[in-house]
Amino acid sequence: MTGGHGDPGLLDHMVEASLGWLDGARGSFRLPPDVTTDADPNLTLKPLGELAELSQLIGAVHPREEIRRTARGLFAFAWNETRDGELFAELIRGEPFATYPVELYGVFARAGLRHAEADELVRTTTRLRGWRVAREDHTRTLGVLNAERRIGLRQHADFASVLALTGLGRLPEPWALDRKAAYGITHDVFHLTDWGRDRQRLSPELAGYLRLWLPSWLENWLEEQLWDLVGELLAVTACLPKAPYDPVAWQRLAGAQAADGSVPEMGAAPGSGDPDEMFTACYHSTLVTAFAATLARIAADEAEAGPRGGDPVLVGGRTPGESESAP
Amino acid sequence: MIADAATGVALALRGEGDPYALSGMLRHEDALTPAAVRVLGADALAPYAVEHRAAPAGVDDEAVVRQALMAYPPGDGASEVSLWSYRGLVEAAHAFLPGDGRPWPPAPEAGTAWVGDSPWPKLSHRVSQLAALALPGLASGLAEQLAARTDDLSRGFVRAVRRRDWLQAAGVGRWLARLPDVPGTLGLDSGLAFVHQMGGADPRVALHVAAARRFYGRGG
Question: Where are chain B's structural domains?
Fold first, then answer.
């Protein structure tokens, strides 16, 4: 991995193209009428939640106004799909002990979009002793803790203690990492840093570990052409202090992006032309590409401007450390 | 033949089997011996680098090495890897054979610019091809240069293991065993043990892991 200040032209083009495709795919992000009953959440709520998470970030922090505007339009669309949060009240009533409605609601709550009934429901369900029972997946628990912080709830466990149990916190041998573990590490970083907004939460030890081993992982998954993981690893790279910029990796990810802005999850996009198949195969990696290129762009701007303390533009209206626990 | 010879070297480094004698394993009169010795390079003499050996090298071993050096001198335009591996065998002959008074062929000049210039994946691949030079006292200039790229070689080890390229992993891992300041989070000892478990059916992998353990105490 080399240093350098990045390539803002390339990065911005990648964000613009990705957002353009995502904007055109609104129909596929739309929630079906049976979303709270029979629909497969992996094909409905998950894509919409990811769209909301990442478009909110891009809409808040990207230096280019027209890019922020498109991203904010997508975020507003996502909120609209939740019927101004009514969806969360319904989801929680249907599955009061599930974490995913809380995690999803946190995305919007973070941006100040609230739903009074959903707020009351989560205050009740997350107070239960049952809510504090340890979950199997520590990375997912970090996501729940981050959602609690965003909503302003008391965090049900100590973030640092859970982090220490994850694939990042354990500092595993870097060669003993399979695909699932790699996705785990990227998400440990995203939850810890609130998706790149609060990058100083990455301790020097963790940052040093990532700086050492990210280049090998990138090289491995570039070879496998697993583009969404490549994008996530580039996003993590952009979260490091004095983030390195790997021009070759960025060129290769750019090369995987089709003329319409879509980025396939793996290899080349399906050739069938079936829109549903296209959407499923591309939406995640396209979102991740826009996200990673946004973080890398900010890192490049910082490198240009020289070192500075704090990260006011990224905090986005919330003071770091605020709402770690409920009053 | 090379596989058998590599197995013989690995056994000797682990202190197993009969006392090692290069000329007993690769016979002077066998037509393929010079090629086998050239391929093994300095590793043909690795067991003689072990301290307090029961049986020292003898004149027959010298004859075998001399024959290989004469048969396969690096030609014009030889690659850096080829130059270095030849040089390694010459250096090993100086260091580990008693010498019968006759001069050894000169060690060719081998450059180190590629150590600084190569991107880390390519560097790791080349270094793994020069694993036989990771022996005590050999190629000390190269070792100094490589020390400056320890992190990159560690990345190469990670990449090789993930690709299940056990031979490259073992070769790079053996060099890392020689270098100071290998990052602790790499887990080199368990990494070498893992590579041995997964790829040790290849005698060259077994040899590199045995050398890392015997000479540098790495690999558990």
Answer: 1-111, 112-220
